[in-house]
Amino acid sequence: MASTRRTVKTKIKPPRKHESEVSLDETWSRLSTNIREIHNQNASNLSFEENYRYAYNMVLYKNGGILYKGVCQLVAENIDRLAQSELVPAFPSGSSKDPVQQSQEGESLLKALRRVWDDHTGNMLKLRDILKYMDRVYTKANDVPEIWDAGLDLFLKHIIRPPIQDHVTSAVLSLIQIERDGYVISRSVVKECVDVLLQLSVDHDAKTVYKRDLEPAVLTASEAFYSAEGKQLLETCDAPEYLRRVEARLDSEQARTYHYLFSQTGGPLRKILERHLLTHNLSTVIGMPNSGLDVMVDLDKFDDLNRLYRLFLMVPSGLPTLRRSFKDSILRRGREINLASTSIDTGQDMDDGDLNDTENTKGKDKGQGRTAMGPPTLTLALKWVQTVLDLKDKFDCIWTRAFDNNREVESSLNEAFEDFINLNEKAPEYISLFIDENLKKGLKGKTDMEVDAVLDKTITVFRYITEKDAFERYYKNHLAKRLLLGRSVSDDAERGMLAKLKVECGYQFTQKLEGMFHDMKISADTMQAYRKYLEGVLAPEVEISVTVMTSTFWPMSHSSASCIFPEVLIRACKSFEHFYFSRHSGRRLAWQPSLGNADVRVQFKARKHDVNVSTFALVILLLFENLTDDEFLTYEELKTATSIPDTELQRHLQSLACAKFKILKKHPPGRDVHPSDSFSFNNDFTCPMQKIKISTVSAKVETTKERRETRDRIEEERHHQIEACIVRIMKDRKHLTHNDLVNEVTRQLASRFQPNPQNIKKRIEGLIDREYLERCEDRKSYNYLA
């Protein structure tokens, strides 16, 4: 029998209501009990799922507020319990003065704070896991902090408060001070405390408790400490030790910031150190007597100088102070060099008769007040330049080794050298003499490379001279004497020096100097042709070597020194003139006896000597050729017979009758030549040397009178240069205001000299009078007149 199965519809039952099983009070009672167990470190015996379900149910059935407030109350109670059990007993007693005991008490409190924090955060991590549903649903809906944040706020409210807060801050400050005093502390303990304070925010701007409380306290304490420290170090330390202490303090504070303070504290803390240890004391430290910058420079303390430079570079006013003191130090030394030059040179202006061979014969000419060391003024010039070069080397070394080639310091160095070198009005002449001495033949003790190195250094000093036109005049005179007397160390050395000057000042500066070398080369070729010419004609009795100088290239200040040649010299001169004019028509030769020299063999009673003398001295000697031993020539007779100017005649008679080799006798005897003197040939002259050189000074410092004459010539040349520059500018611009014209003239002439604005104004007036320029109606500008 078949049966039909009925289809049964499954009925879904609704979920059971938990509140019917467990009441709210019972749920909270169980959860709160478990939370207290977590606070008592017994979480391992609890069920995470069970506690999560308790919290879940309370939130699910709209009891999240009760849960939230209850948990916060339990957390607060636990924090208070920890504070009383851990922190309060660890408060420092404050009775001990021993740094070690103070350190231990401070560390004990900070360790306790860290234990409380670790305990609290460990508990809050567990609670956060249990109350995740509450954080996700209740806290967001009611705009309250999540339980972790609420726990931080409770820690901040119950722990970071007086008196705990004050004790913690004091403990940190005490440990920092103890470490500053040189004792060892546990940095890790302070670091752990700082980490706690950095994790506690006091407002919505994320300002931490560290930034609010600890950092200001640390900075205030540091301000007071380093203010006193700076004063104490100034009283007890010299400059190098002060700098070492400051550097050590900076390093220690940097390490302190790195190891246990917040990195952002490093900046303000460093500013405090820089302000109290550096900025306030820069001038005092650098100017300390017996230990400041000057003493460090004198003793070549490169390490101390480098430390000073590095520390001063840290503050804005440091480098300007260093530059100012560095410049003052150089200027002081430079003025001392100039002063020594002036004081030694006091008698130079009266000594117009220095001789090349000024060695006094021992036992003779006593009481004449002459030294036996050669021309003192030349020695002085060489010493001045060498001292300046040594000073430059010294400060260049300091600039390189101690100041890291700082360009601003280099600028101060250059300014100082330029200032004091130009304070010495003889600097252009002295530098030219120094170069002259180094380019002469027979310079003992120096190789070509050493001479070239010295000349390179000299160019460095030459750069500082503002009156380069004055140097050019002196250099031209000295170069002329070297070339004409054959005293150059080498032609390559001379041309090398010219190349250096050309690099510094341009082609115009060395154009005439190069012309002098060209004349020497042409003259050598001319003499070679002249000797071949003499092979076909009757040669004169005297063999001559002639240098033909272009008057515009060579210094022609000697042209006024005339002379009447003896017949034997006249015939030789005429022979050369006949040869020269046959090759060059339309030219004129003017003999310059003051620049020449001669080799003459002189017969004395004992023996013959080959004597090298100047042309003037030769003319004088030839007048005594046919005189007997008892015959005399008066000064006036010599002057009439030779027409040599008084100044030159006196100098050459001094060299012949008053120097080491007395070929002539002066009557009456003495060092100076007067118009009333008379002279005779010294037939009894003896000398162990076959060859004797008698000449006047080849390179000596100018006298006051000569310097005044040179200065007048230089000023006259400057007038022409200023006028030429004005015309050149106005021709190009056509119209300029007075100030613009003065500025442009000054700029263009700065490479040769610094023109005075008043002189420029006078030259403008002169050009207006000569109708090169005209003054405009506004009286402040000029037009160029074609």
From TrEMBL:
<dbReference type="GO" id="GO:0031625">
    <property type="term" value="F:ubiquitin protein ligase binding"/>
</dbReference>
<dbReference type="Pfam" id="PF00888">
    <property type="entry name" value="Cullin"/>
</dbReference>
<keyword id="KW-1017">Isopeptide bond</keyword>
<feature type="region of interest" description="Disordered">
    <location>
        <begin position="342"/>
        <end position="373"/>
    </location>
</feature>
<dbReference type="GO" id="GO:0006511">
    <property type="term" value="P:ubiquitin-dependent protein catabolic process"/>
</dbReference>
<dbReference type="InterPro" id="IPR045093">
    <property type="entry name" value="Cullin"/>
</dbReference>
<dbReference type="InterPro" id="IPR036388">
    <property type="entry name" value="WH-like_DNA-bd_sf"/>
</dbReference>
<comment type="similarity">
    <text>Belongs to the cullin family.</text>
</comment>
<dbReference type="Pfam" id="PF26557">
    <property type="entry name" value="Cullin_AB"/>
</dbReference>
<dbReference type="InterPro" id="IPR001373">
    <property type="entry name" value="Cullin_N"/>
</dbReference>
<dbReference type="InterPro" id="IPR016157">
    <property type="entry name" value="Cullin_CS"/>
</dbReference>
<dbReference type="InterPro" id="IPR016159">
    <property type="entry name" value="Cullin_repeat-like_dom_sf"/>
</dbReference>
<feature type="region of interest" description="Disordered">
    <location>
        <begin position="1"/>
        <end position="20"/>
    </location>
</feature>
<dbReference type="GO" id="GO:0031461">
    <property type="term" value="C:cullin-RING ubiquitin ligase complex"/>
</dbReference>
<dbReference type="InterPro" id="IPR036390">
    <property type="entry name" value="WH_DNA-bd_sf"/>
</dbReference>
<feature type="compositionally biased region" description="Basic residues">
    <location>
        <begin position="1"/>
        <end position="16"/>
    </location>
</feature>
<keyword id="KW-0832">Ubl conjugation</keyword>
<dbReference type="InterPro" id="IPR059120">
    <property type="entry name" value="Cullin-like_AB"/>
</dbReference>
<feature type="compositionally biased region" description="Basic and acidic residues">
    <location>
        <begin position="359"/>
        <end position="368"/>
    </location>
</feature>
<dbReference type="InterPro" id="IPR016158">
    <property type="entry name" value="Cullin_homology"/>
</dbReference>
<protein>
    <submittedName>
        <fullName>Cullin</fullName>
    </submittedName>
</protein>
<dbReference type="InterPro" id="IPR036317">
    <property type="entry name" value="Cullin_homology_sf"/>
</dbReference>
<dbReference type="Pfam" id="PF10557">
    <property type="entry name" value="Cullin_Nedd8"/>
</dbReference>
<feature type="domain" description="Cullin family profile">
    <location>
        <begin position="426"/>
        <end position="657"/>
    </location>
</feature>
<dbReference type="InterPro" id="IPR019559">
    <property type="entry name" value="Cullin_neddylation_domain"/>
</dbReference>
<feature type="compositionally biased region" description="Acidic residues">
    <location>
        <begin position="348"/>
        <end position="357"/>
    </location>
</feature>
